[in-house]
Every structure is written in C-alpha cells, then in structure tokens.
C-alpha cells in the first residue's frame, strides 16, 4: 500500500491532468493521481449508455492496469455483462466491489479474474455528462483485501468523482476533435445540423443565417457528402452519437 499524498499535492496532479498534451501523458498523470489516492490500477471507459453491441463503436478507453486484464476482459466479452457497467448506466453514486450484485456465472468469473489482476478490491465511479448522452465509468483497483482496500478507496471517493468528470470531459473533447478532423466538418456545418436537431426547417435556417433556401440545401448536400449519408436526418443522428453538438 502506498502512502497517500496531501491535498495540495493531489491538486497539482489534477492541474497536470487538465493540461495534458496527449493521451499518453494523460494516462501517466492519472496513474500518479490514482496511486496518490491509495489505488494501484485503473481503467476509464466512456460510451453511449444505449449502445450495447459487441462492436463497442462508441467506447473510448484510458488504461492504467495490467495488460493481461484488458486482454481477458476483451477476449471473454465481459463488457457485454459487466455488472459495474450495468450499474453505471442508471446510477451516479460510486459502488465498491463487495456491493455489486452478481447474477451470472460469467460475472462471477469476471470478478475472480479481476481480483487476480489488480482489482482484488476496488471502487467504480459512474459519471454522466449534462450536455451529451455520453457517460463514463472509472474503475479503481487495489491488490489489498476488500476490507482494507475498499475502506481506503471509499474515503477518497470525492477525488475519484472529480477525476471521473475530468476524464469524461477529456473523452468528449477528444472524440469530437477526431471526428471533425476526419470528416472535414466545419463550424457552419455544426450550426446547420444543430438547427435541424432543434426542429428548424430549411426556411427557418435560411432566415436565421440570412441566406437563401437554396444555399441551405447546398449546405445539406455538402454535409451529407462529408458524412457519406443519404439523408440529412442521418447527419443529425451522426452528430448526436458523436457528441458534436455539445
């Protein structure tokens, strides 16, 4: 068990996380903070709660644990039945490993494997964004027994909730930037799609932008071409799924 840092030192780790230049640097800072708060391993995942398919198209991960655990988790498709993930879809309060409700043999196997790979004890922190549909789940683990580890980690739950929120903000910003870059989407494109989401007609948009209706329809075509969709309503759905309108 590592010695916990004082609050000023923990605050400095948060400051570094907020200005991390890339994912690798962010992962290192998060690991340092987790250790400072008494944990040893972590995984953060953000996703859309309604997406439960095996493709995990909307999932984004930040990993700070043994790679063997991630390999087992993926190989067994435990993300389809993860009891902590199911809990996080409709809850916001942190939950410890001993509190989770286990209903299937697969879930029991998952928790047994987690216990051998840095998550013998742990706490899971759900976080939900107010401006998008995306949610996040922060898993913090320790090799200590549940009696020891859970008590220590639970005492730091406010810090872990703050960390989860920062990581969800980072995930939303990063995902949005990558999608905009990949498809060449402009601010004007987003503005038009935002109006459509709000129920504006082409005539409404033309009036709002002080352009002709023909210009608006031209914008529709450019947006559809960039996204490879056949109807502008599909562009609105794409923007929603990828958190582009937040």
UniProtKB/TrEMBL annotation:
<keyword id="KW-0238">DNA-binding</keyword>
<feature type="domain" description="HTH luxR-type">
    <location>
        <begin position="182"/>
        <end position="239"/>
    </location>
</feature>
<keyword id="KW-0805">Transcription regulation</keyword>
<dbReference type="Pfam" id="PF00196">
    <property type="entry name" value="GerE"/>
</dbReference>
<keyword id="KW-0804">Transcription</keyword>
<dbReference type="InterPro" id="IPR000792">
    <property type="entry name" value="Tscrpt_reg_LuxR_C"/>
</dbReference>
<dbReference type="InterPro" id="IPR005143">
    <property type="entry name" value="TF_LuxR_autoind-bd_dom"/>
</dbReference>
<dbReference type="Pfam" id="PF03472">
    <property type="entry name" value="Autoind_bind"/>
</dbReference>
<protein>
    <recommendedName>
        <fullName>HTH luxR-type domain-containing protein</fullName>
    </recommendedName>
</protein>
<dbReference type="InterPro" id="IPR036693">
    <property type="entry name" value="TF_LuxR_autoind-bd_dom_sf"/>
</dbReference>
<dbReference type="InterPro" id="IPR016032">
    <property type="entry name" value="Sig_transdc_resp-reg_C-effctor"/>
</dbReference>
<dbReference type="InterPro" id="IPR036388">
    <property type="entry name" value="WH-like_DNA-bd_sf"/>
</dbReference>
